[in-house]
Amino acid sequence: MRLVALLAVCVGFCGLPGRAGAEPTAATFCNGLKSAVASEVSGAEAAFVRSYQLATEESKLPDGLSTTAFVYDDALAVIALVACGDVTAARSIGNALSRATQVDRSFSDGRIRNAYRAGPVGGGPPNLPGWWDNHAQLWAEDPAQDGTSTGNVAWAALALLTLHEATGDAQYLHDAGRLVDWIIASTSCGDNGFCGGYHGYDPDQIRLTWSSTEHNVDVGAASRWLYRLTHDQRYADVDRQSQLLVGKAFQNDHFLLGTKPDASLADDRLLALDVQLWPWMARTDAPAAWRRALGFAEAHLAVDGGFDFNGDRDGVWVEGTAQAALAYRITGDFRAVDRLLGSLVSDQTASGLLNATRKPQLTTGLSIDPTSSVPDFLYFRRPHLGATAWAVLAATGWNPFTGQKVN
């Protein structure tokens, strides 16, 4: 009986040979993720999952987060749930992403928004997040959430491609292609790859003219995957174009954030952990020199117990620390993997989700409004879907950019 129970626990996330203790960590994070999303997707054919839950000391979430399911977080949750073997829950969220590509309240070009209202999705356009503003006596929305970030579109495509390969459902493949086709048609920036997307309220949104290294990594990963499945030359061309920006951003031992709105390279003093990891994690043919960025991250972004988001090193960014654990798994440094995963166990909350930070708040040096230069984008210590999904990916050894487990 005990053997049967252990085998049942291992379905979907065991099988890391010679790694004593790795399986229980994977089970811990997988079970936490599945428990946290169960109530929001149970019985729903299509549903978005709220990105954040109440912190211990909170009585309510801020208005801008109370109903918000960020597409990036939900896409990660789809991939992580597949890695855990829970394809049913993954499909519920994936169906919501698919629905969003097919019908929108204002646009018919195949874009997906940065966020949607958490909960079941009906047959019409998925609702966007919002709240009643008592002071202004109106329904309020966030212009960044209503907008469309190129990287988020690519992550939605990666989630749908993951589901297509897990289920064989051709609709997911079709919708992933539709998303990348939108990127091609709407965000191309020539030698600077693909620009940032669109920002603002419907219907007159602002086109973002800067390019993000991170976004172009995401676009390249989704387009390579599509090319592998469809052999459509357009997607190979997209991959090459996205890599123009990524290659330009590499500065001997680290990556810049991308370009400014005027197409000049970003300030070298602005650092971000994910930008140092994702370019070489995302492709097996990445230049060997790109892995120097991991050493750069260790020298400039590491803190006690993990990694910070940026170079001010003011605390542990849980999501990024999980990303680093997966990066170390790719390089074969399993001692570092175990150290980081062990530290992440302490971040898991009663809900099953991991907190976004260990300190009350964490700076990023970035702006909430992508048209602004005010560094007001902060992470707070509250349970976070995206951080939990990355912990699952690191513990299971699942590379979200390729849909394959790390050998």
From TrEMBL:
Q: Which residues form the signal peptide?
A: 1-22
Q: Which UniProt keywords apply?
A: Signal
- Tell me the InterPro entries matching this sequence: Terpenoid_cyclase/PrenylTrfase (IPR008930)
Q: The organism sits in which domain of life?
A: Bacteria
Q: What is this protein called?
A: Methylaspartate ammonia-lyase
What species does this protein belong to?
A: Bradyrhizobium erythrophlei
